[in-house]
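Me: I hope this is not a bother. Any chance you could explain this protein sequence and its structure tokens? It all follows right here:
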Amino acid sequence: MGRIISINISTQKGQKKHQIDFAVLKINHGIVGDAHAGDWHRQVSLLAVESVDKMRGKGVELHPGDFAENLTIEGIDLKNLKIGQQLKIGADAILEITQIGKECHNGCAIKQQVGDCVMPREGVFAKVIRSGEIKTGDQINFEI
């Protein structure tokens, strides 16, 4: 079991994401109001706060959303999830893991600053298979 540390969105692609207290996950869309939402396999991005802490250990000041992740979470080893695995968030929402890691684009400010970025290795992506409202602090459980 894990929990949401931060929910992060941006209204335009290429912008740093900002924190919000709650969001609506919409089936086959993603987070309502986020620029990266849409009918594709990477509707919602997740990154563990433990991964962010690794980068902080390299002397970088970081905040939730700095890796463009939608959900900063704790308590789940995201990089060891399996494609197709489902996560229930809050009372209703369910995400299905669609991708683990991603190809890094060389323009990433964090990679330029410290020579490394965890998102390509430890970030995961999911699609929304059941809609629901989520908020900071919500529990994340494995759906059976």
